[in-house]
Amino acid sequence: MTNQTLSISARRLAFNDRNDGDLVRAVPVETPVAIEVCGIGYAVMMATPSDLRDYAAGFALAEGLVKHVRDLSDIIVHETEGGWIIRLTLPAEGTAIALERARRRVSESSCGLCGLENIQQVLRPLPPIRGLITTSREAIADALNALQHHQTLGRSTGGTHAAAFCRPDGSILCVREDVGRHNALDKLIGALALSDIPASGGFLLLSARCSYELVEKAVRAGCPMLVTISAPTSLAVERAEQAGLTLVALARPDSALIVCDVHRNIS
């Protein structure tokens, strides 16, 4: 397995007891991961080099390059000097989408969201949530309490995000970790798709603030409910309401905030 941590030397600076000292600490590996689509450079992401096949599948689904993971003809993960390369082979429709986006990116400014056309793309309608689950406050609390025990990389470094897929009873079925919260969720979505586990049958739990991108990834994966440990942004709330996604935020050991639950997934 590729190293996911790196040991560094540091000096502890104590604020109260003056118990300073030299120590060795593990930090998560962050490295460039280049994504190529049919031989064309599509994106370079900064990620933890683990579960990259899952990441590739989840990224392709989240980007709308494929509708089903079975549409991916091939996924090749290759380590190169200074980072990693993921090579995707897509059907004709996905290839055309990727090539057009790559062409536009050349003329765009670095923000990647400039111009009316891009704003329209960001705010494009989301597919409505079709799946329904029945869960409870006890299940959410159980998942929160169990998450830390599934965060192997997080426990050793204190510097990564986790994305978990939970059954309606709160038991955790699958977890993926990464230095980036978006990457962690892409890895999880890809892992579910590659294992033929429908995201509609449970809920997502993320150790991150709830930005609109995470809401959109959850909706496009067909998951009916998203729980995050931090606060949502205004656009995240708006997009969740539009799609009918049950959104729970500020999930803590003693409470959580139900932001929207139009389908009454939480009993």
TrEMBL record:
Q: Which UniProt keywords apply?
A: Cytoplasm, Molybdenum cofactor biosynthesis
Per UniProt, subcellular location reads as:
Cytoplasm
InterPro entries xrefs: Cytidine_deaminase-like (IPR016193), FdhD (IPR003786)
Q: Which Gene3D superfamilies match?
A: 3.10.20.10, Cytidine Deaminase, domain 2
Active site (catalytic residues): C111 (cysteine persulfide intermediate)
The keyword Nucleotide-binding appears for this protein: no
Keyword match Cytoplasm? yes
Q: Which family does it belong to?
A: Belongs to the FdhD family.
Physiological role? Required for formate dehydrogenase (FDH) activity. Acts as a sulfur carrier protein that transfers sulfur from IscS to the molybdenum cofactor prior to its insertion into FDH.
Identification of the protein by name: Sulfur carrier protein FdhD
Q: What organism is the protein native to?
A: Bradyrhizobium brasilense
Gene name tied to this protein: fdhD
